[in-house]
Structures are given as C-alpha cells and as structure tokens.
Amino acid sequence: MSGVLHRHPRLRLGLLLGPPMLWLGVAYLGALAALFITALWTADGFTGNIQREWTLDNFKDVFSLEVYRTITIRTLLTAVAVTVIDAALAFPVALYMAKVASPRAQRLLVIAILTPLWASYLVKAYAWRGMFSADGPIAWLADPFGLSTPGYGLVATVVTLAYLWLPYMILPMYAGLERLPNSLLEASADLGAGARVTLRRVVLPVLFPAVVAGSIFTFSLTLGDYIAVKIVGGTNQMLGNVIYDNVLTGNNLPFAAAVSTIPVVIMLVYLAAVRRTGALDNL
Amino acid sequence: MRKKRTLAGTAAFGLALALSLAACGTEDAGDDSSPDSASEGPGGFVPPDIAMADSLGDNEGTLSVLAWPGYAEDGSTDKAVDWVTPFEKQTGCDVSVKYFNTSDEAVTLMKSGQYDVVSASGDATLRLIAAGDVAPVNTDLIPNYADEYDFLKDRPWNSVGGQMYGVPHGYGANLLMYNTDVVKPAPTSWRAVFEDASTYSGKVTAYDSPIYIADAALYLMKTQPDLGIKDPYALDADQLAAAVDLLKAQKEHVGEYWSDYLKEISAFESGDSVVGTTWQVIVNYTKANVEAILPEEGATGWSDTWMISSKTEVPNCAYAWLNHIISPEANAAVAEWFGEAPANPKACDLTSEGFCDGYHAGDESYADQIHYWTTPIEQCLDGRTDVSCTTYQDWTQAWTEIKG
C-alpha cells in the first residue's frame, strides 16, 4: 500500500487533498450554488410549495422595491457602526494588554475577554433587553439627569452587537500589537517622536491588518444577525429578519434565497477591498 | 495562474453538483395534483389524493404534537393545568410538544413532516390541505366528534367538498390588552392602537404577522364605510392600500411587534408595552396589572381545527389524540386555559360557572360576528366578482413594507 502511494505521488496528493476539497465543494460551494438556484424559482402563494420554473422575478423585486434598499442600507450602517465602535473600544484594551500589563495580568485579561464567549448568545442578548427596558438599569441611571432609556431600537441593537462581537476585535488586535517589537517604539522615541506621532506612524501601520481581520468578524457577524435585533431592535428589521421571515412565516424560500445573496455580495465586495489593501497577506 | 485554475475548477464542480441536484428535484415535482380527485376547495384548488384511515389498530407509543401555545399543557406551567399526562396514561402514547407562534410557522413546520398532529387556525388549514401536508380525517373513528356543535362542522376552513380534514377544537377572539395602571380611561375601541396610538407612543404593540392587516381592515370596515370593506380578508388593491396606510401610521408609535407570546408577556411586565392586541392565554400568564377587552368594533379571531399529518407514522396515536382533545374534560380544560369557546357542548358542564356564557359558546350568531382568520385568496371571499382580491403573498409583501 505504502509502496503504491510512494510510486504515485499524484495519487498520494489526491487522497490527501480529496476529502477537504470535496467538503469545500459539496458542503460549502454546493450549498451556495443551490441557494442561488433556489432564488431563480418561485413559491406557490397559497401552499408555499416550490415551483421549479426559471424566473428572475425574485431578484427584480429585491432590487426594485424601495423597502429592501432601506433595509440593506440600515443593515450596512449598523454593521459599520458596530465595527467602528468595536475598533475604538478594542484599541486601548489591546494596547494595554500587549504593551503595559505584566505577563500575569496579560493572561488574566485574555481570560477575562474570552469568558463572555462561554455564555450563550441568547443570555447576553436578553441581558441587554433587560438593560434597555423601561424599568431597567439604564432608565434608572438616566433618570436623575432627566433622561430616559433609548428603548428598543437601532441604538440598542448597535450597543448589543458591539458588546457581543468585542472579543473578536480585541483578540486579533492584541495579537497584532504583541508582534510589534518594543525596540521600534523606543527607536521612535529616540528619534524625537512624541506619543501621538509614534502611535500614528509606527503603531497604526502595524496594527492595520489586525484591525481589518477583526473587522471581517464584526462586520460579517452583524450583517447576518437577526436574533439580537428581534430581541432589542424594536420594530426594526435587518436583512437577516427579512430572510428569516420569508423562510419561516412568508413560506417563500426562493425569495429568501434571493435576499440572502445581498449579504453574500456585500461580503465579497468587502473581502475584495480588503485584499487590495494587502491586509490579508499579513494574517 | 495555477491557483486561479484550481479555484475556478472547484467553483465549476460545485455548480455542476447543484445543477444535478436541481435536476433530480425537477423530476419528482408535479405529482402533487392527481387527476382523479374530484372535489374543489373554496380557493378553486383540488386537494391532493391522500388516503384516509378506515380502521384503527394498536397505539404506536409516541406522538409529536405541533400546537398553539397553551393547547397542549402537561402540567409544567401550572400543576393543575394538565391534559397531556392523562392522555399518555390512557393511551400509552408518549407526547412531545412543539409550540408555534404564527400560522405561517405552523405551515412551514408541517412541511417538514416531523409532526403528527397540528392545531391549525383557519388561515393555515386550507394551505395545509392544498399542499397535501394533512390527511382527510375519518370522523367515524372519533367517538367524541358526534357531540360537537354542528355549526362548526363542514365549514369552508376545515373541510373540502364535504370531507372533513380535522376536528373542530374551539374558537375565540383576538382581544385588546392594556396596562390598567397606565392606560386611563380604559379603552373601548381599537382606536386605542390606531388613531389614538400617539397617546402611548412607543409603548403600543401589535401582532407580527401579515394576518394582522385584517385587524386594520376590520377597524376601517367599521369607521370608514366609504371603502366598502365587507370582509377583512377580502381586500382589493385599494382597500389593502388603505389598511397599509393605517398600519404605517400606527408603526410610528409601536414599540415592538410580538409574535413570540413570551416576548409580549415580558414587554407588558416590564412596562415596555402598555396597550395592544393579545390572546386571553397571555392575559392569564402576565404578572402585571393588565386587562383585556373585546372592543366595540368586534375582533378578528380564530376557529381552530386539529389535523393529522399526511406523513405521520403513528396514525393510531394521532386519532387517539384527536378524540382526547375534544373530549368534554380536555376540551373544557383547554378552553378555560386558553380563553376560548369549546367546540364540545358537553365541555360546558365541566367549566366554571358562567364560563361558556361568557364566551358565548354555542351561540351561532355571536360566533358569526368574530372574523375568523382565513387565508386571503384571489377570488374575493365576500363574493365580489368584479375585482380580484389581494392574496396572502401580497399581504406578506405589504407587511414587510409596513415594518420598513
């Protein structure tokens, strides 16, 4: 057996790469292709059974009806807001962890940041529902200042999602900063650069690929989220809700498939843009 | 260059695979309508030919129930509220229950074939029958069926061409719930959630389903007779547009929509919602000062039917469940717990005093005033033939636009 494999390097390579390639092809690309094909069918309005006739109507509706443009823009803006907030929050934390804290404190901080990932997504989302409710802690804190809770809506959604995805931004940034040698910071100081110039011209360029890596997580996870917005989003709907509603309540699988090509396209564009910056090479 | 070719190859392979899958799918489609089934349903559809049980055997031992919340209580919510355990003891069928929140969810879940029986409202029943997801029911095999109110039998939402597709369960109205500490004076009209919604702006709630459009249509039917709405489920394009405008105006003041009944309970308990549409069972669960009324305009409502999946592997347990759930004991318990009129008059002897009168059980003229959920279809349900009405798919589209 090993002799056969030794004599046929191509067979060896095929056996080694075959299963993972098959998995990629069947489970991943196959599913995406099936999704796209489903989007070209229609569902019977009465029974919800799928009718296998080729039509572009679903895509026509998605692109021509204003409501889907509004929802797409709302989802995009939410994803951008969550990413920016996470990046702004994660930077000082990551900088402190990588450059200031003692090794012992470093380990404790990593554990502290990873711990929330052990709790269920739903528990955390419902915790924020409690925070934002009319008799919740935010209302209680804001009351002495004559303010009230923003209530369930886009603000609550952005805050909740920024909280949920924060570890995914901190960890790549921390890893990126750890790779930055202290000698570079010292050299910068020796050459007369102040903290601000060092930050801008030494730290940020090194950090950029890490921020991009983190943003892929926060951006794509927000783009596909529909549960948090159901729990704290009030009357708002995101692309994920439209897809969910069409699958589960609208009984219109083909239309749901057509809508779900929107986030796929957005992510492809985003990844292409990221690739152009060269950030992916540094991952 | 090499890398690119590999990628393209993988993609082409994936596409080819999906195409071949699609081809397989196309072949077995189209056996839905068999030519020999004769009777036509009210939507102008011919139900698929599905065999009906003609005798019963031994119980199989398990039963998977798909039900509205509160329809299959096993004592876990309240020890005194339990009609599943007696059924399990009597029949030896182990029951597992899945609750659903909207009729659309029920229709989708029934397509999976994982559930043996379902409590379907009138806006789900015909879709289930037309899709071949439920089987005709041989009512001769269900002894308790004979006791049920005659005016619930052979209705357009539970039978096709004189063939019953289930057993009537009970009926009731969607109510207006409000927080008695906040909402003063007490509302008497649906106006509280439409034109007067601004009073409690941000704390109004509404049912998150396209069928809620009928609530707006019912309100317009009573307040704007010029629109000529005769049946809230038979709306032509102009009437639908009017209902959509009303709901868009309402949306400005809606804090959140509910379809998960637990979400509505928590919103009323925390004070995030203070007025909105509800079911009696939600009022029972809510630990806050709330009250529910039947507003002066009347209400939309439901008339539910227990149906059997066409794919069930446990028909005997399924028939046993249908017989049990309309037995006087179980029917009375469900009716009192959920807050609806029972379908079996014998249940009224077992409910608390005055219960059946309160829900007007058996009062045919009252039952006719509730506008039961039904699926909007192209042929206007109010008998108009000069226009075509909007379908449920139009309503679904409109509902997405209302929520924006």
Automatic annotation (TrEMBL), chain B:
Gene3D superfamilies linked: Periplasmic binding protein-like II
Organism name: Nocardioides agariphilus
Keyword Signal: yes
Signal sequence interval, chain numbering: 1-29
Coiled-coil stretches noted in the UniProt entry, renumbered to this chain: none
Stretches for region Disordered: 28-51
Database matches in InterPro entries: SBP
Annotated PROSITE patterns: PROKAR_LIPOPROTEIN
Keyword Signal on entry: yes
Name of the featured protein: ABC transporter substrate-binding protein
Keywords: Signal
Cross-referenced SUPFAM superfamilies: Periplasmic binding protein-like II (SSF53850)
